[in-house]
Amino acid sequence: MTDGEQELRRALDSRSGAPSPDFRARLRAALADGRPRPDPTLAIALIVILVLTAASIVVIVPLRGTRTHVAMASGARNTATGTRLVSPPAITSPMPSPPIILPTAAYLSAPSANVLWAAFPGEARIFLSTDQGTSWSERSLPERAPLTPQVSFADGLNGWALYGDPASECMWADARLWRTSDGAVTWELVSQVDSTHEKAGGIRFERCKGPIYLTDANHGFVVAEDRCCRPSVYRTADAGQTWATSTLPDPPDFTTHADFSLQVDWIKQFGATLYLKAHGEQPVEPLFRHYIFRSTDAGASWEWLTKVPALDTVMVTETRWIELDLPGQSMESVDGGQQWHTFQCDYAQAAPIAPQVVFGDPSVGYATARGEIQRTLDGGRHWADIKTPGT
Amino acid sequence: MSEETAGLVQRARAGDGVAFAELLSPVLDPAFRLAMTMLDDRTAAEDAVQEASLKAWRKLDRFRDNAELRPWFLAIVANGCRTVRRGRWRSVIPLAEIARLPGPADNLAERMDLETALDRLPRHHLLALSLYYHLDLPIEEVARVLGCGEGAARQRIHRALVALRPGMVMETET
Predict the structure, then answer these.
(1) ipTM of the predicted assembly exceeds 0.90
(2) Cystine design at B168: which of A4, A129, A280, A336 (Cβ 3.0–4.6 Å)?
(3) Residue A90 contacts by C-beta under 8 Å, 6 or more apart in sequence?
(4) Does B61 lie at the interface with A, CB-CB under 8 angstroms?
(5) DSSP code string of B30-71
């Protein structure tokens, strides 16, 4: 082994450590809770889907002409018959037990200033607040999964949840997209991509799925990406019945090739304009690069707009963008990312993990921290804890 | 797979949490060390290993009886670590941490450079280096975790070394 390799080994050793007895005990306790399984209603739903698919093909195929849009998973949805494929029992206030025991990560969606949704890993429930996080009501998710599902809500009623199963190179290979229109009381399976629906909607099943973004009851986006190619942005205008796709172009200083591809962080809409944040790595300095794209044709095409300094850029408005960082280092742009300066911000957390930050309007926003959620009422300058749902 | 391990797999598939904990026991340490090198944060590493454990249990039906548990589980851990959001929040290295690197001949500035380079290294490179240099896995097992052939695994390690420090090579290549 060369001197350089030995030095590398020492450096890697110094980053490492052994699992503590406390962690081992907690893990055993978590395993003692029993083997996590998919919600059995999902299996029932899939059986129903197969039956309905067969029926649909018999009835619909002869009637259907050439389509310009493609269905991600034919027959996955059955609104024609009015059948709800899955209706998990809804649970509402008062807050039930058990509490959230592992709020190590949360996934937030804030469609407006007052409405906030929060999901947690391993939980088959989701929490809704309509008073800026002061109180919460518990609703259902369609599946219980070890990973936090990605959720996106257009308001207090209409939302999507995306679940995926891991493949060797991707956390979101298989994907199941669910939709609710009654505030997460009931869910229906909109689209499914897996090895048996490999070519459904043209989405290669092994590509990563997500993030998702729902703009209203009918319009939404799903991103598919991998490590070799440019991300695809799928869009629907009919609540997931049909999908069309566009490809994200390479920015001027970025070349997509093996292991150096863009990953999409979020999509957000202001008026008629869509914005998309993506980041990627290149083999030469600067290694990490971050970009904002724009679409003015409802996602049919995307254009590179500008570079941004870091991973966690959040658009508060179309022109005011912020970047939460360590105390004293948070950045702000008030001209759409052209110039950046530090701004006074008291957000802080102990863990060295980037927060998820979402804004419901130019003033009200929410950010994750380890074990808690914080809220700002002044556009990100001052932050305070709010009650963590499920505790 | 030994008869004892096969028995544990069978019991774990039936929902026996004690059996699954016992099954994971020998691979928990390398899994945690892998998560630590990739995330450089103890709590985040614990989260990643715990979530990977639950996921592995749920996926245990897909685990082939003649497969090896370690690369299978490490691949799940690695996948989990790759998705942990990474921002500038880990860019500050506490002063106390700098002194933890052993080795009397070490140069402080070089150590800090290497630490910084590791922090900035893309996760897929960090994974390849951790598997080979930190966990000391044989190249065939590195390949199984990475989901590629042995030649490709060797190439990935080489590319990671070059990304970390231009000019650095694997001993077998010198």
Answers:
(1) no
(2) A4
(3) A139, A140, A184, A185, A186
(4) no
(5) HHHHHHHHHH--HHHHHHHHHHHHHHHHHTGGGS-TTS-HHH
Of the candidates A100, A92, A135, A97, the one whose C-alpha atom is nearest the C-alpha of residue A115 is A135
Are the beta carbons of A33 and B17 separated by less than 8 Å? yes
Interface of A with B in 344-383 (CB under 8 A): 351-354, 356, 370
What dihedral do alpha carbons A78, A222, A325, B126 form, nearest 10°?
120
8 Å CB contact of B43 and A351: yes
Give the span between the Cα atoms of B102 and B100, in whole angstroms.
Answer: 6
CA-nearest residue to B120 within chain A is A287
Using the Cβ of B11 and the Cβ atoms of chain A, whether some distance falls under 8 Å is answered with no
Best residue in A5, A15, A28 to probe B by mutation, most B CBs within 10 Å?
A: A15
Chain B residue with Cα closest to A148: B51
Q: What is the pLDDT along chain B (174 residues), one digit of tens a residue?
A: 678 888 888 898 888 888 999 999 999 999 999 999 888 778 888 888 988 898 888 888 878 777 788 999 998 898 878 766 544 333 333 333 333 434 444 455 566 677 777 877 777 888 999 999 999 999 999 998 888 888 888 888 888 888 787 666 666 544
Question: If you search the block for the tokens 């609703």, which residue do you land on?
Answer: A139
pTM (whole model) above 0.80: no
The contacts of residue B45 (CB under 8 Å, 6+ apart) are B32, B35, B36, B38, B39, B81
Q: Taking each helix axis from N to C terminus, what angle separates B69-83 and B17-39, rounded to the nearest 10 degrees?
A: 50
- CA proximity to A276, closest of A238, A232, A330, A342: A232
B37–A9 CB contact, under 8 Å: no
Q: Is A38 on the interface with B (CB under 8 A)?
A: yes
Structure tokens, A206: 């092994």
